[in-house]
Design goal:
two-stranded antiparallel sheet, mainly alpha, 7 helices, 2 domains, single chain
Amino acid sequence: MAYHCNRGGHDYRRIPKAQFEATVEEFVHRIKIAPVHTARLLEIFAEEWNSRQESYYRNLDFKREQLGETKAQIRNIVNNMHFMHSDTALEYIEGDLDQLETEKRQLEEDIRQAEQNIPPSAAEVMSKARRYIEHVDALLAGGNSVLAKERLFSVIFDSLPDYSQLVEATMDGHSHGRINELFMVN
């Protein structure tokens, strides 16, 4: 098996797959987050976590409010059923009641699941964020699919390198302007 590249502007190359993957792996292990960006990245993680927390609790509160309204509608229907004397009206009301009971069960299940899947604490999230920032190479090396690696490379590089440029960046630690400013080659 081999890696072939004839992408626009790149010379056609055929590199043995093992050699190509070893070069990519060596390069990825040298990638670090540039220290000047660490604090801002942690701020971004914190902002995103706060946003997700707010959304989680807003959604949970909304579901609880819906459940309360649904239960009130059920009580109202049950309390007013004895005033109904028409069989047709009772059939419609029973249909509405069945629908509300189904909605109530679904809301109760949604709330139960949400309460069981409480998001991690800020300390846990920030600890993971620091670990990812400090060990970005492990995060980058995690994908085995070619598509996943290409996506990761599109984040690291402002423009994707060809094989010789990747080898050069791995050897001398310079990207010659190709690596996104967020990253550096160690």
